[in-house]
Amino acid sequence: MYLNLYQKYILELLAEYDGLLVRQLEALVKHFKEPHLYNINGYLEQLRRFDKIEIVPYRGEDTVILPYGRINEYMVTAFDIMLQFLDYLKDFERGDNTVLLRFYITADEKNEQEINIVPVEIGREDIIVQYVNGYAVNISDSADKISHPPSWIFVIQDKKQMSRITPDTDCSFVLAADSKVVFYER
C-alpha cells in the first residue's frame, strides 16, 4: 500500500502517542502538513481497509488506534489541552515519566514558551510539586538566561487538589469533565 504524506504522519503520531481522536489528528495534519486539506476521513478509511489502523468509539467520538493498540485517557486529554494553543503551536513531544506531553508555542514569533502537561492523581500532589520545583532549578542552572521559564498545566481529578499543588512556577489546572477540558487558574 502506498502511503501519502498525511497517512505517514498519522501513523507516526499513533505510534508515538497511542490512540487519538479523529478531530485531534485532523487538526495536527492541517496545522503541520496541509492547512487547506478538507478532512482526513478518506485517508483514514484507506488505512482502515488495509488494517493499518482501527477506528473505535471513545467519549462519544471516533478514536484512531493502531491494530491491537490502546487509548490513553490522559494523552487524549493532553492533546485536547495542547490544541487550545493551536494557533501558536510550534512543536510537541512526549515527556518523561512525570510530564505526559511537552509542547512549544510562540505567541510573538520571537520567544518560544515551553508548556508541560502533567496528570496528577489524588495523593501524588507533593511528589509532583517536588518534581516541578526540581525541574525549574535544573533549567535555571543549565541556561544562562531564560526569557520564559516553562509553564505547567496540571490535569487534576478533583478541584480540591489545586490547593495542594503549589509549585514555585507558573501553572494552571485542567479538570477533564464530560469530554471537555476546563481550565482553572490558581
From TrEMBL:
Q: Fetch the Pfam families from UniProt.
A: DUF5697
Entry protein name = DUF5697 family protein
Originating species = Hominilimicola fabiformis
Q: Which InterPro entries match?
A: DUF5697
Top-level taxon of origin: Bacteria
